[in-house]
Design goal:
The chain is an all-alpha fold and 369 residues long. The chain contains 14 helices and two strands.
């Protein structure tokens, strides 16, 4: 809490410095329609569902409120079927967090909610989305940079911020922030001068200070990201990968293919073995079927990233021999990744054969599909 208080003081001083040291006309920052409604919706979601509540449905509903707040500020022409789909996936993940599942399922819900929020932020900030992985990565980093740059720009141009329906919104926001910061600062100082006043401030602080500080930070973060607009590269050129050369990519991918092949060869015997085969290795059947499912999914995910990089490099190389060798090693790696998914599927079935059908394992089957 002390660090958050110092952060607010620093932002206050930074804002004052920006106001008195600006040397040119501030940029005209556009605040989208319904921004106040979006901020109110997000703050209500946090204070009602997420404040001092355990991980689960409360935080899931808070995530839904953030998704709804972002989508509310979308321009009508940007509310495409894909935008609706991204928002709906995040909402479903938030609702599913209310079910009592294991840690892995809850982590998946959190990742999906965060991915939905970030995707909606980026989609409302650019003109068009390109269906290339490298383009998405590049645009994501550009969005982060624009968001960081937007903080001082908002302070410098607060008086010039435009809104379709609330032209005085910037003034209201500045007034609220400065008032709260000043009250907090002097309340802390005055509480040191009188023990009775300090006791009253302590009671107020325990109930409201943390909630207020986090609400302000949440509102500022949401406002900053809602005002980001930039022009991403929308050319139809296929993304290129010049960081890796041919050998720098071929040799590691070949080594990874050999490693995956060794793993599949070693475990092939035990995926269809009985309990007696595991006793020789001093491993129980239960221990074997419980472990490895999540690790196989993670390995497949990062392996897919490697195959994507191989495909990008394959498009760039001009020599036929190099292009064919990359195609072969990429195909082998892809087949092995499908085998890893098959291994995860087999472990799932082994678990259900031993312990019966459970909701978590059924969700695992759906996730595999």
């Amino acid at each position: 809490m002390a660090l958050l208080f110092l952060l607010l003081i620093g932002l206050f001083v930074f804002a004052i410095a920006q106001v008195f040291t600006r040397d040119k006309e501030p940029p005209d920052i556009h605040v989208p329609r319904y921004t106040l409604w979006a901020l109110g919706l997000a703050l209500l979601g946090y204070n009602i569902f997420a404040y001092k509540m355990g991980f689960g449905i409360g935080w899931g509903l808070f995530g839904i409120s953030i998704i709804a707040a972002i989508f509310l500020t979308f321009e009508p022409e940007k509310r495409t079927w894909f935008a609706w789909y991204i928002a709906a996936v995040g909402v479903v993940a938030g609702l599913l967090s209310g079910f009592r599942n294991n840690e892995f399922v809850q982590e998946v819900n959190v990742v999906v909610i965060l991915a939905s929020i970030v995707s909606l932020f980026i989609m409302r900030s650019i003109d068009a989305v390109q269906w290339h992985g490298l383009w998405k990565v590049k645009t994501g980093f550009q969005f982060i940079g624009k968001s960081l740059m937007q903080i001082p720009l908002l302070f410098r141009s607060a008086s010039a911020v435009r809104s379709d329906k609330h032209p005085g919104m910037a003034t209201v926001i500045k007034t609220v922030i400065f008032t709260v910061v000043l009250l907090l600062f002097f309340a802390v100082l005055l509480s040191q001068a009188d023990p009775v006043f300090e006791l009253m401030i302590r009671q107020v602080r325990e109930q409201a200070l943390g909630r207020t500080v986090i609400s302000i930070i949440l509102a500022l973060a949401l406002l900053v990201n809602l005002t980001v607009r930039f022009h991403a590269d929308t050319t139809k050129n296929i993304p290129t990968l010049r960081f890796f050369g041919y050998l720098e990519l071929f040799i590691p991918t070949l080594a990874l293919s050999l490693l995956f092949g060794l793993f599949l060869f070693v475990q092939a015997r035990y995926l269809f073995a009985s309990d007696a085969a595991f006793k020789v290795l001093d491993i129980t059947y239960a221990d074997y079927v419980r472990n490895g499912f999540l690790e196989l999914l993670i390995s497949t995910f990062f392996g897919c990233l490697v195959t994507y990089v191989v495909i990008l490099k394959q498009r760039e190389v001009k020599a036929l021999k190099e292009r064919v060798s990359l195609q072969i090693v990429g195909t082998v790696l892809t087949v092995e990744l499908f085998a890893l998914l098959g291994s995860a599927l087999r472990r799932n079935w082994m678990y259900m054969d031993m312990y019966g059908f459970t909701r978590v394992r059924i969700i695992g089957l759906v996730f595999l599909a």
